[in-house]
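Data availability excerpt. The first of two example chains:
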Amino acid sequence: MKERIMTLHPRDKKGTNILKLKYNFIKKHILSVIKKHKIITFQDLSDILVNQLQNDFDGKVVWDVVMVKLDLEARGIIERIPKTSPHQLKLS
């Protein structure tokens, strides 16, 4: 049986149970893109990751990006920049 991880949600909502291998894969790419751009909108982050990963990924890239992004926010690894629209992200 493959190891799974229960993601966290920054607003105390229920997380999602996803494969740990998939979580780590998406996490690595999210952090890499944010590190490169310093500040990035969620839409730009999603677009970049879909383009980079869609051929090497089983499932909906955007859905997993959302779940892992929320988990990283809840863990304090990345943060939303307050009062930005569309919302922007940066490393904590």
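And the second chain:
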Amino acid sequence: MTADISVVGAGLAGSEAAWQLARRGMKVRLYEMKPEKMTPAHTSPLFSELVCSNSLRGDDLSNAVGLLKEELRRLGSLIMMSAEKHRVPAGGALAVDREAFAQTITDAIRGEPNIEIVEGEVADFPDGECIIATGPLTSDGLIPAIAKACGEADFLHFFDAAAPLISFDSIDMTKAWFGSRYGKGTADYINCPMDAEQYDAFVTELATAKEAPVHGFEDAGVFEGCMPVEVMARRGHDTLRYGPMKPVGLRNPDTGESYHAVVQLRRDNDEGTVYNLVGFQTHLTFPEQRRVFGMIPALANAEYLRYGKMHRNTFLNGPKLLDRYYRLRSQPRIGFAGQITGVEGYVESCASGMLAALEAARRFHGLPPLDFPRTTAIGALALYVSGGAASGDFQPMNVNFGIIEHLDERIRGKRDRYLKVSERALGELEKIIERERAGV
């Protein structure tokens, strides 16, 4: 097959980009190095593997990521279709059965006649127009080509961590209960309580536990949105009680009792046989994870199906290097998508792949750009990456209402104000969708 465009990487951004390009009549060559070569964080040969949490976060339009998901749904996102199909209970969040989610995406991509899949590591940019969606763990083989195109000084990085997964059968449910914070959802989380004495001992041990060596790691190098739990423990004795161990809104339904601290577990697959420790990203050694997390009474005999890990994430200096379509300003035939651009989060990665693909398809068909405005979440994210951050201090960011254009009118109440922002965004999006349908 003669390709019109190449996509490198079949993660969330690359899979979404390849799918959208193919559905718009373009011949796509999709390069993926798995399973021939794996990154430190990946274990599955499937496309769009979720390597950290199985949650795509909030699903309400008063939440910026909820708005971003709705925009993607209306644009026909493959990632969102699979997420809805394989949703698992998670209160107000959209969480998925990670294996079934990835399998559906893989099957769809492999079954699309306009996509040719090439397995193996890529060491240079493909000829012609291409989208590089190799993620924050881009292979050593491709890094030199990107560095040469961008300039060594324009690579940035931070450290990211994943939480452990445990077997449901190993949780002591006599010391835990099902329930959601403030009663939201349908008792979707397993809550593992601790009293003050248990919490004090736990935090003391956690703050001094042995960590696995990660080259170049310092506490200051972590991304705030995915901070290792042991780093939080070192920031202050009660930091965890205001973070992943927050007890507010959680009462034992059988006794009415509230607790000093609570660890929440979220279902990680549809069968409910696997749970992850919410907010417990870590880079402790495996024996220390068993020892310290075993101090949580309900997890004293937990069986670990995957231990927490830490890895270095690489991203570009977007405001200096990329335009609003995620293309290199110096070489517009080369686009990027996903976390390598500096967007942070699963949904944000998907959104960057969507925008990069839609605009590439417009160029291919000789149409003017859609130019998603800052009033939409998709547009605001691209404009933040390409210039909305303070120069010299660009850091990965999740979508938030702070980067979306503010309303002209004053509305009291944060929830009502954010709902109005979302209403405006979806109205603007419908205009874009109508333009696309009309081919103008």
